[in-house]
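Hey, can you fold this one?
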Amino acid sequence: MTVLNACLLRPAVTACLVLVAQAGFAQDSAPTATTTRGSWATAPRHSAGIAPDPARLADIAIVQVYAAPTYGWRGFFAVHPWIIYKRKGETAYTRFDVVGWRAPQVVQRNYAVPDGLWYGATPELLVDRQGEDVEAVIDDIEAAISSYPYANQYRTFPGPNSNTFLAHIGRQVPALKLDLPANAIGKDYRPLTNPVGVSSSGSGLQIAVLGLLGVSVGLQEGLEFNVLGLNFGIDLNAPALRVPFWGRLGLKNAITANQVASPDPALAGR
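Sure. Predicted structure:
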C-alpha cells in the first residue's frame, strides 16, 4: 500500500469507527424524528407478504427469522431482527423480539405483525423452517427465550440489544443454523466474565469482549472479525464478503429449510 493510499484510508476507517461508537452509549428511546419512511407514528408496519398463511398451513409447524434496517439514522448500518413461530395445529404466529423503548421489559411478545415492515423497512427472511421436526426446535426456542440473561437490560451499542437476543437463541438452538449478518450490531456481545464460547450460529467458536473486539469462526458465518462493532470477514458456506453497513456482498444465504410450500402472495402475511 502506498503512503498516499494509507493516508486516504486511515481517515475513512477512523470516521467509520467514530460513527459506530456514537451509535449510542445511551439507552434507546422511542423515535420521534421524521425520516424518509415518515414519522414514528405514521411509518408503515403492515405485512410484507413474506410469511405463509398460518391458517392455510395449520397442520404444519413453522419457524422464521427476519431482519430489517433499524429505524432512523441507525438503519444505515444496523438491523433489527426477530423470530416468529407456530406449532402444528395453530393458526397464528407468535413473535418475539427485543424492543429497547419498552424497557425494563425489553423482550416483547407479539409486539408487531409477524412479517411486518419495521417502521417502513422491509424485512429480509434469514431462516425458514417448516415440517415435523420443527416442533422440537420450537421447544428449544421457547427455552432459549426464557433463559435470555438480559431480559431487563438494553443498550444500543455495543449491546445487549435486539441482535444479542437473537444471537442468544442461535447459540441455544443450533438447529436453526442462524447466520446473522455482519451489520447485526450486538450479536457479538459477550460479558467480560464469559469472553469465549459458541458463536451466534451455534456452529462455531467465538472470542469477544463486550461486542467491541473479537473473532468468530464457524460453518455458517465463516471467518469474521469485530473491531468496535464493525464486522469484516468472509463466508465460504454461501460465498460472500461480510462487511459493515451492507451485511454481506455476494451470494445470498440459502434459507434453512424443511420447506413444504412457498408462500402464496395472495395469502401471505395473514
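Residues 49 and 269 are 5 Å apart (CA to CA). Let me know if you want another pass with a different chain boundary.
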